[in-house]
Amino acid sequence: MVKKLGITGIIFLLLFVFVTIAVITDSLWVNRFDNTLTTLIQGQVTESGSSFVAVATDIADFMAVTILTVATVVILFVKRMYIASLWFGFTVLICAWFLMDTMKVIIGRERPDELVITMETSLSYPSGHSIASVLFYGFLALGLILTMKKASYKIIVGILVALIVLFVLASRVYLGVHYPTDVIGGLFFGLASIFISASLYQLALPRLQQWMKKKNWKDQSPSLG
Fold first, then answer.
1. What is the chain's mean pLDDT, rounded?
2. Could you tell me the residue range of the domain that residue 185 belongs to?
């Protein structure tokens, strides 16, 4: 399981690097891809639709994801899943905030300036909403899917989370605050973070639980394999 999670994470990381290099070098396919997909998505813009999307997209903004992450950490901690609790919290904190902000500054891509429905002041690549939604909802989904026994439950969780993430990604382009490659880059980085973090968690869990046992702390963190 550790190997499969790690390899999957590396694949998504390489895809992120590929898109990032293309954005930095202003590759021709990036402009064509962004223009084509932006025209397709923003061709569906309506006044009522934009009002709804502007509010609904906040399920992945800084405040919402921070509150949800803290709540999840507390719930896991109360259930004595100490390792899982801290691992989840630090993964979201480091990848969705620290690394994301750092990459935005280094890459320095400006946001779109045409048909902007709602204003954003930060830089454009990668999309923070995309990374946050993939990391929070995706990490929860992966944990549930790998620990659930019923296949039907796994399918339901997978579909619900996929719909949430796809909505967030499309909403950022719909509102004119991101190029499609911004959200694709955010998607790949978020997925890479999830799988790499999950593989490291699975690798470190036995040793951490053994150490905690010596300290008389009963940890109930689940194994993913």
1. 90
2. 2-26+47-214
